[in-house]
Write a structure and sequence with these properties.
Keywords: Membrane, Transmembrane, Transmembrane helix. InterPro entries: UbiB_kinase. By secondary structure, the chain is mainly alpha-helical. The protein has 3 domains: about 70 residues, no CATH class; about 45 residues; about 70 residues. The chain is about 85% helix and about 0% strand. The chain has 7 helices and no strands. The two termini are about 50 Å apart.
Length: about 200
């Protein structure tokens, strides 16, 4: 133990790897064929998760399930009793729902009838369409502000050249306000485009 404490970590890992290779050479073993597919699935999930969020860690997600498997092996009778309790609860709910099934079918038939008669309407949200409408609204608002900037700039210039100073200054001030709105609209449209690229994976 004292000798190992003096060995650097990299050398210790290298020695451990050589020991494992020696053991594998003496006693070869094979992984099941399905093991490679499981490893590939985990690597794909880990890659997708890290692409969406660099802080993604699949080991933290898998830890509760691994602990549950370990407890299942260690606890024995306790886990078996909990499993029996869950099965009994499911059977109790199934027996209870057996007598309420007729009422639920009748209620479902009433809902379908209301849909057919037009008394009840369903609203389905389409996130892609909502994002597209949001971008269109931002673009239209920006274009409207840009048109206002051009019109006010022309008006202010004409008034200033005709020595009508006060209305010209007011037009310039309003033009500056709409110019600021145009800048805000351009930034908002760029943010919406960036968000859409992140969602669709084309960033």
């Amino acid at each position: 133990m004292g000798l190992r404490s003096r060995i650097p970590l990299s050398c210790y890992i290298l020695l451990t790897g050589e020991d494992l290779l020696a053991i594998a050479a003496d006693q070869p073993f094979r992984f099941p064929a399905t093991f490679t597919f499981v490893v590939r699935a985990f690597s794909v999930l880990d890659g997708i998760g890290k692409g969406l969020d660099p802080r993604f860690d699949i080991t933290e997600i898998a830890k509760p399930y691994a602990l549950e498997l370990l407890r299942f092996r260690e606890a024995g009778v306790e886990v078996l009793l909990k499993d029996l309790q869950r099965r009994w609860d499911r059977q109790s709910r199934a027996f209870y729902n057996l007598f309420r099934q007729a009422d639920r079918v009748e209620k479902l038939a009433e809902i379908i009838q209301q849909l057919e008669q037009g008394d009840l309407k369903l609203r389905v949200r389409t996130l892609e369409s909502e994002r597209a409408f949001q971008r269109v609204a931002a673009v239209q608002k920006t274009l409207g502000a840009a048109v206002a900037v051009g019109s006010l700039m022309n008006l202010a210039t004409i008034l200033y050249l005709n020595s009508i100073r006060v209305p010209a200054i007011a037009a310039f001030v309003i033009c500056a306000f709409f110019s600021f709105q145009v800048l805000i609209g351009i930034v908002k449209v760029k943010k919406l485009d960036q968000q859409e690229r992140l969602i669709t994976g084309t960033a």
